[in-house]
Specification:
This protein has 15 helices and twelve strands. It is an alpha/beta fold. Strand 3, helix 4 and strand 4 form a beta-alpha-beta unit. It binds 1,3-dihydroxyacetonephosphate (13P) and iron/sulfur cluster. Iron/sulfur cluster binds next to helix 9.
């Protein structure tokens, strides 16, 4: 028998009785997970709901999602669903985007504690002040922003299309909020433009440090290093490629390589194992987003049972924020 770490039971340091207890506890846990998943599938039908899940969700939440993807893919799915209820398993700004794109539908966020700290690093008032300092410069907002910030924005982008969107603008000076690292990444491809950056950052991707990648590469010299553009410039320089989460999945699926060091939220590896089984993935220590992990199966069940927590946004904000989001979707990946 193999343990979850790939050791054989013979190598396992636990005593035989400890091993039996662990095995029984795992079986009980799996039964609870199965029962919750079954209940969620029943409720989903009953409520005419669709579950959209981000690639960083817990494995068991990924398993009950109708669609898994990156921020771009999830926005596209949200814009074209005909379900009455959208349950969004991701962080706050993602659920808000689904509501902006579907103002007449019920959009549920199963756990309001799942908030992206980077999205909270810029507010509408500060952005208005920055706009006043750079009159005429268009605003490109990373989709990791509040609805109020989107309402002050010309066009949104995700990490999947940030370069393409900024390249497509005729302007020489562009305000880009809130992620400095993504802005610096885009700047590599648009040398003729001046990006006015904001000091926002993702705490999870700042935890991914070059020294850890160097150590992993020494241990696994044939592994390709794939990171997210929210990582710091020295990490991106050292990596083989920087992609959005879905970009990482697409690359791995089509690559002839078999070993990968994954420089983004570790939960991505569940999705990778599903899409490209038989390949080997190495997680980078510290690459966890506690906010994305807030949503549990119990939260999803309660969300469907009680139709909670509904995303509600002022009508005028929805009207204004819809414009940059729809422009982003129209621009494609
Ligand atoms: P993706 O759009 O690449 O899925 O990224 C979202 C995110 O929050 C990354 O930290
Ligand atoms: Fe926000 Fe970073 Fe978590 Fe993505 S990984 S949701 S940017 S905190």
């Amino acid at each position: 028998m193999q343990t979850s770490r790939g050791q054989s039971c013979i190598d396992c340091p636990r005593s035989p009785s400890e091993r039996i207890i662990t095995h029984i506890s795992l079986m009980r846990l799996q039964r609870t997970v199965n029962a919750l998943q079954k209940r969620i599938l029943e409720l989903k039908k009953e409520k005419h709901a669709i579950i959209l899940g981000h690639n960083y969700q817990r494995k068991e939440v990924q398993e009950i999602s109708d669609f898994l993807g990156d921020s771009y893919g999830l926005s596209v799915q949200a814009s074209k669903t005909d379900a009455k209820v959208i349950v969004f398993c991701g962080v706050d700004f993602m659920a808000e985007s689904a509501k902006i794109l579907n103002p007449d539908k019920t959009v549920l966020h199963p756990n309001p504690k799942a908030k992206c700290p980077m999205a909270g690093m810029v507010d509408a008032k500060s952005l208005r002040e920055l706009k006043a300092e750079h009159p005429g410069a268009p605003v490109v907002s990373y989709v990791n922003t509040s609805a109020e910030v989107k309402a002050e924005t010309d066009i949104c982008c995700t990490s999947a299309n940030a370069v393409k969107i900024i390249q497509s603008l005729p302007d020489k000076k562009i305000i880009f909020v809130p992620d400095t690292n993504l802005g610096l990444y885009v700047q590599r491809f648009v040398k003729d433009k001046e990006l006015v950056l904001w000091p926002g950052y993702c705490p999870t991707h700042m935890n991914i440090v070059k020294e850890e990648l160097v150590k992993l590469k020494k241990l696994h010299p044939s592994a390709e290093i794939l990171v997210h553009p929210e990582c710091s410039p020295d990490v991106i320089d050292y990596a083989d490629h920087a992609f959005s989460t879905e970009g990482i999945i697409r690359h791995v699926v089509s690559s002839p390589k078999t070993e990968f060091i994954i420089g983004t939220e570790e939960n991505m590896i569940h999705r990778l194992r599903k899409e490209a089984p038989g390949k080997t993935y190495y997680a980078v220590p510290g690459a966890t987003c506690p906010n994305m992990r807030e949503i549990t199966l119990e939260d999803v069940r309660d969300s469907l049972e009680k139709l909670q927590y509904r995303i509600e946004l002022p009508k005028d904000i929805i009207k204004k924020a819809k414009i940059p989001l729809e422009r982003m979707i129209a621009a494609g990946r």
